[in-house]
Amino acid sequence: MLDPDLSGLTQMNHIDDIHNSDIYKSNIHDRDTHNDIHRLPIPPQSVLTTRQLTLSYDQTIVIKALDLAIPVGQITALVGSNGCGKSTLLRGLARLLKPVQGAVYLDSRSIFQLSTKQVAKQLGILPQSPTAPEGLTVRELVAQGRYPHQTWLQQWSAEDARQLEQALMITHMLELAHRPLDTLSGGQRQRAWIAMTLAQNTPIVLLDEPTTFLDLAHQIEILDLLYDLNREGRTIVMVLHDLNQACRYADHLIAIKQGQVYAQGRPSQIMTETLVEAVFSIKSRIVTDPLTQTPMCIPVSRKSRVSP
Q1: Which residues 6+ apart lie within 8 Å of 10 measured at CB?
Q2: Alpha helix ranges (H) inside the chain
């Protein structure tokens, strides 16, 4: 079983011998049970905000006095240059990093005043490049997402089984549920980790660079999946490096520069050549994506040639 700390739900740092856990002695391995599954309700939306949030690493301030409100029920993308504080902010929002000053609020309550299980029932996080023990199957991994909902008296319930099967179904992982993670492709592994996060059944999902190390086809596969999950009612917050993907998929864009919000709003409102130069120190041309009508950034390099 995973460590009750929220970070343990995703980073898999402290796992006992889950292969022998009682949760796998039930009949949830029946591969045909998904035929009778209906989409289960998502918990009511939660509001995630910060007030004068300051975060640091090794006494170096990374995020400075940040006031922020994550739009409920939308996809928010955090963008900015390397080292600007995107991942640090995400960790702060998830209660994985304690503020130097200020606070993160979940439904108007300081997130550090809530118990770990209270937070884990409202907020799921998928960090960069998570790892799992060798030989762990997809089904065993996804089952760990149900930890916040279990008690000493009831380690596994019919509701847990339904949420597990639904998470596998939504992410198209049912046919791969018996496979060890280390036998899957990069895109399949990422879908398995997202399925684990979905099994928590939280209204807010945070993801740190979910497309890192994936080829283009798998990147689009993951982003399409997150788009679908958002349209079902979840609030999605993710760190992205690709500006064009951020503009295409996000409802709300937050551009971070040196630990502070440089601009935020709809991509069509804030994605300008001025912003790209200020945040990324590169000149660009902003045109309209012919498929989605969203902003598309074309960087200007020394090899660029302007047509007459």
Answers
A1: 124, 125, 126, 127, 130, 193, 196, 197
A2: 6-11, 86-93, 116-120, 138-143, 158-170, 186-199, 216-231, 243-249, 267-270, 273-280
pLDDT (0 to 100) of residue 45:
63
Residue 41, pLDDT score: 55
pTM of the model: 0.79
List, for residues 11-43, the tens digit of each pLDDT value: 333 333 333 344 333 433 343 333 444 455 555
- Tokens (6 digits) for 18: 């889950």
Asked if residue 96 lies in contact with residue 89, where contact means CB atoms within 8 angstroms, the answer is no
- Residues 80, 95: Cα–Cα separation, whole Å: 21
Per-residue tokens: 275: 């912003």
Residue predicted with more confidence, 44 or 253: 253
DSSP-derived secondary structure for 16-30: --GGG-GGGSSSTT-
CA distances from 79 to 88, 141, 209, 222 (A): 12, 29, 10, 18
Mean pLDDT over 155-160 rounds to 82
Amino acid type, 34: H
pLDDT of res. 295: 96
- Strands 101-106 and 260-265, by their bridges, are unpaired
Return contacts of 303-306, CB within 8 angstroms, 24+ apart. Answer: none
* Separation between Cα atoms, residue 291 and residue 168, nearest integer Å: 30
What is the Cα–Cα distance from 108 to 240, expressed in whole angstroms?
27
